[in-house]
UniProtKB/TrEMBL annotation:
It comes from Paraburkholderia lacunae. Residues 1-58 form the HTH lysR-type domain. GO terms for molecular function: DNA-binding transcription factor activity; transcription cis-regulatory region binding. Keywords: DNA-binding, Transcription, Transcription regulation. Pfam families: HTH_1, LysR_substrate. This is LysR family transcriptional regulator. SUPFAM superfamilies: Periplasmic binding protein-like II, Winged helix' DNA-binding domain. CDD domains: PBP2_LTTR_substrate (cd05466). InterPro entries: LysR_HTH_N, LysR_subst-bd, WH-like_DNA-bd_sf, WH_DNA-bd_sf. Belongs to the LysR transcriptional regulatory family.
Length: 304
């Protein structure tokens, strides 16, 4: 039996909807249903009455809900005590962030904190979006940084997980210049000469961003997949070597654009604006985190 099965069950009892509970738990509906079934097999009884709509708890389900909520509360309270003892002493932060954010945004952002808070010891864990969310939900970090687009939201309960917008980035196509300093590969390309695309895996967040952008295009560009990776840093290296065109966050290529080593491969119609957000678990009442969150909020407000 796994703790996440109990958390799934409690979410289903709250929302009375498999689809809404699955969205809240950041899992596919089919995967969510399988986990509920696994829990029922472990208990040895049906916990959910699926004969009507919305689904309701069976008598066994109501009995199990009471025990499950009590057990989880005690487990999480105990874990919080242990983790508090294991945290870095003083002003310490554990931060989860995407690889690109960890490289291009966080170093300068963390440096600005010292001017307001003195020495802040930060442990940055670069990871993908899915694992970052798991770290936040499981209490393994105080802050999580991630990109956001309205049509590609992160499925986090806004009542528990607060967020602030700390920046805006541009997802844009770039390539090496030719001898005339013009793009070696210019969108949209032609059917006879499709552009070599250095792309992301479909399941990565940037892969979903690219799919959204291309799906909104008035005319599909002529692209031929050349390389694929789930890390923007890999795509950037391949583009720098002249292997093709790739969509990259502007923040990760500012120096290369200014020096002319990379140039835009298309006009602004091929750009996608994304927010850079920081998230926190509102139930974490650390005094330093509360003070830091207030500072981030004040710094993120537009000046008048």
């Amino acid at each position: 039996m796994e703790i996440k099965w109990i958390e799934d069950f409690i979410a289903l009892a709250r929302y009375q909807s498999f689809s809404r509970a699955a969205e809240f738990r950041n899992v596919t509906q089919s995967g969510f249903s399988r986990r509920i079934q696994s829990l029922e097999q472990w208990v040895g009884a049906d916990l959910i009455d699926r004969s009507g709509f919305p689904p309701t708890l069976t008598p066994a389900g109501r009995l199990f809900q009471e025990a499950a909520e009590d057990i989880l509360e005690k487990l999480f309270d105990t874990r919080a005590i242990i983790r508090t003892e294991q945290r870095m002493a003083g002003k310490g932060l554990q931060i989860a962030a995407g690889h690109t954010i960890a490289l291009s945004f966080l170093p300068a952002w963390l440096k600005t904190l010292s001017a307001h808070f003195g020495e802040v010891r930060a442990r940055v864990i670069p990871t993908n979006v899915h694992d970052s969310i798991l770290m936040l939900v499981n209490g393994n970090c105080e802050l999580m940084f991630a990109y956001h687009h309205p049509e590609l939201p992160l499925h986090l309960d806004p009542a528990r997980y607060q967020h602030l917008t700390v920046g805006v980035d541009t997802f844009m196509p770039v390539c090496r210049p030719n001898e005339r300093s013009a793009p070696a590969f210019r969108l949209p390309g032609t059917a006879n000469h499709p552009l070599p695309l250095i792309s992301y895996t479909e399941t990565s967040y940037f892969g979903r961003c690219l799919a959204l952008l291309l799906g909104q295009a008035t005319a599909a560009p002529a692209l031929q997949l050349h390389y694929e990776s789930d890390m923007a840093e890999v795509l950037k290296k391949l583009v720098m070597e002249g292997e093709g065109v790739a969509w990259l966050p502007r923040s990760s290529i500012i120096a290369e654009l200014e020096s002319g080593e990379l140039v835009p491969a298309g006009r602004s119609e091929w750009h996608l604006e994304v927010e850079l957000r920081v998230y926190r678990d509102a139930s974490n009442r650390s005094e330093f985190l509360e003070t830091l969150w207030g500072h981030i909020r004040a710094a993120s407000q537009p000046s008048r």
